[in-house]
Amino acid sequence: MTALSSEKKQKKWTLIELLNVTADYLAEKDFEDARLNAERLLAHALGMSRIELYTNYDRPLTSDELAGFKALLKRRIAREPLQYIIGETEFFSLPFKVSPAVLIPRPETELLVEQVVTHCRNSHSDEDEIQILEIGTGSGCIAIALAKNIANAVLTAVDVSHEALTIAKGNAQAHEVDVAFHERDALKPWPPEYLNMFDVVVCNPPYVSFSEYESLPPEIKNYEPKVGLLGGNDGLEFFRKFSNILPTLLKPNAYAFFEIGERQAASVRNIYSDTGFSGILIVDDLAGKNRIVKMHWNRSKE
């Protein structure tokens, strides 16, 4: 970074000077929300809030503080996601710890939570318990948001990654919610205690195709876990493989909710219609893109 290069090592930087120079530099490098990136990096480096940066705008940084900030900035310039550098992000108005072991929660996934919350409040409000299963929990953000917003929900969440479950369990503990986390490959046979057990299954599966994966921004492609993103050649591999497993997990008159890619609605509808699901509803996100599939299972236990 030119402004922090060796010829200016002796300069005493104040918070506001460093913020301004960093924001300008990141903007020149085509970073979105350059000012916000600069604020969050400096606040994290100093253990301050973003507001405190401005209420202490004329405070000079020590040489150690400057070195620490430069180390963080170097990572961001290499396109490491801000959320991984800081170790935290927000989802559904709740803070969540994240690491490279888990996908970074996306704003569009909040629509998935909203759909499940609305369904449970409309259809299960009079019941003592709603058994909900989340597949591929990652950071636990979906399961935890559901637990915080559905009073009678009993949450089970699975993931194939032990490291991801460690993050998820820590997040659940921080939010003081009870979620039963289990390490499990959802595409392999499930033990008897899970069969015909759930009123709702919710999943944000890997649905990125090979071609889409190759064109992803470096923040995603180079840092986020590939297993949570890549859905095979056409992005539909998980949906196909899970289609025969999902019915075995559901009670009669249960529902399943998936997040999908914007061009996958027709294909996912066909896959699950052929499996015996009905009332398949496609919900668009705020950008008008197909984003959520809601579907009804009304078969009796076999």
Give a structural overview:
- With 302 residues, the chain is an alpha/beta fold.
- The protein folds into 2 domains: 2-78, Helicase, Ruva Protein, domain 3; 92-297, Vaccinia Virus protein VP39 (Rossmann fold).
- The protein has 13 helices and 9 strands.
- The strands form 2 sheets. A 7-stranded mixed β-sheet has the order 5-4-3-6-7-9-8, sandwiched between helices. The chain has a two-stranded antiparallel sheet with strand order 1-2.
- Helix 6 (110-123) runs parallel beside helix 7 (141-149).
- The radius of gyration is 22 Å and the shape is elongated.
What's a concise summary of this model?
With 302 residues, the chain is α/β, with parallel strands linked by helices. It contains 13 helices and nine strands. The chain has two domains: 77 residues, Orthogonal Bundle (Helicase, Ruva Protein, domain 3); 206 residues, Vaccinia Virus protein VP39 (Rossmann fold).
Distance between the ends: 65 Å
The parts where pLDDT drops under 50 for at least 5 residues are: none
Helical stretch count? 13
> How much beta, percentage-wise?
15-25%
CATH class of the largest domain: Alpha Beta
Q: Average pLDDT value?
A: 94
Q: What global shape is seen?
A: elongated
List the domain count as a whole number.
2
Helix/strand-derived class?
A: alpha/beta
Strands in their spatial order, largest beta sheet: 5-4-3-6-7-9-8
Largest sheet: 7 strands, mixed
In the CATH classification, which architecture of the largest domain applies? 3-Layer(aba) Sandwich
Give the beta-strand count.
9
- Output the helix-strand order: HHHHHEEHEHEHEEHHHHEHEE
Gyration radius, rounded = 22 Å
Helix content: 25-40%
- CATH topology descriptor of the largest domain: Rossmann fold
CATH superfamily grouping of the largest domain? Vaccinia Virus protein VP39
